[in-house]
Specification:
Blueprint lengths: L6 H17 L3 H18 L2 H11 L7 H6 L5 E5 L3 E4 L5 E4 L2 H16 L3 E4 L3 H10 L6 E3 L5 H12 L6 E7 H13 L3 E7 L17 H26 L1
Parallel strand pairs: 1-4, 1-6, 4-5, 6-7
Antiparallel strand pairs: 2-3
Helix pairs in contact: 1-2, 3-9, 7-8, 8-9
Length: 240
């Protein structure tokens, strides 16, 4: 999904449509396509598109530590993987990278405030554990076999529910949270969503709804991929 909605694929697909229309000498269609592409690219760079995407997939609000502490039934913090980093500066050792890094930092922040144990889930889990240890924390369980969000939930259920752990604080980024809650609830967890890395948090000053920025374009590409993923999971679980 993320590859399909990457910038190169969108540009190539748009140009292909224009070239096909030119080949068949549909000049009016070519003009409409060019205007539509320009308008779409502009909207993709704005906070308005971000809000529209969140309206489709659902948006979980940020939680305060007090809200999390009030959930006395929570038994563990589950942090989902989102990439790793192998750097020469770390003697080629693995560390949390991409979205994993922000999730680890926020999960550690919550764990230190609540004393809840941490569970890491994803093929990047060992790399995430290295970064977590550098923050002075460890993990109760490490699930390192899952390749996607569905498997995050499936394998975490196999690991945790046999230990009586069904009430979790789920940590992932804001775009990914809605689909993650779907998956974990499908496998029998009671989820308190604790999202991090909200797209608007990367701007020092609030952006106007129609103010375009390159950073918002990148964020909204991720959001579009989540729309397809969300639909895919809803259909999958409905059929099951």
């Amino acid at each position: 999904m993320k590859t399909l909605f990457s910038f190169p694929f969108i540009i190539i697909g748009s140009l292909a449509c224009v070239l096909v229309a030119l080949h068949y000498q549909r000049i009016r269609l070519v003009k409409m396509l060019i205007i539509s592409i320009a308008l779409s690219l502009y909207l993709m760079c704005t906070p308005l598109m971000m809000q529209l995407i969140f309206a489709v997939i659902g948006r979980y609000p940020p939680l305060s530590i007090q809200q999390i502490q009030q959930q006395h039934t929570a038994q563990a913090i589950v942090i989902l993987g989102g990439g790793l980093y192998i750097g020469q500066e770390y003697a080629n050792q693995k560390r949390a990278g991409f979205a994993s890094l922000a999730r680890i930092h926020y999960g550690a922040y919550v764990a230190k405030a609540t004393d809840l144990p941490i569970v890491l889930s994803g093929i990047e889990a060992e790399a995430m554990l290295s970064s977590l240890r550098e923050l002075g924390l460890g993990a109760l369980f490490v699930e390192d076999k899952s390749l996607d969000t569905h498997q995050n939930a499936q394998f975490s259920a196999q690991l945790l529910q046999s230990q009586g752990i069904k009430n979790i604080v789920l940590v992932t980024d804001a775009w990914h949270m809605s689909r993650s809650v779907l998956a974990f609830e499908h496998f029998g967890f009671r989820v308190l969503a604790a999202p991090t890395e909200f797209p608007e948090g990367f701007f020092i000053n609030p952006q106007a709804l129609l103010q375009p920025t390159a950073m918002m374009f990148s964020a909204n590409l991720r959001g579009l991929a989540e729309v397809l993923g969300h639909v895919k999971y809803r259909v999958r679980y409905w059929l099951n």
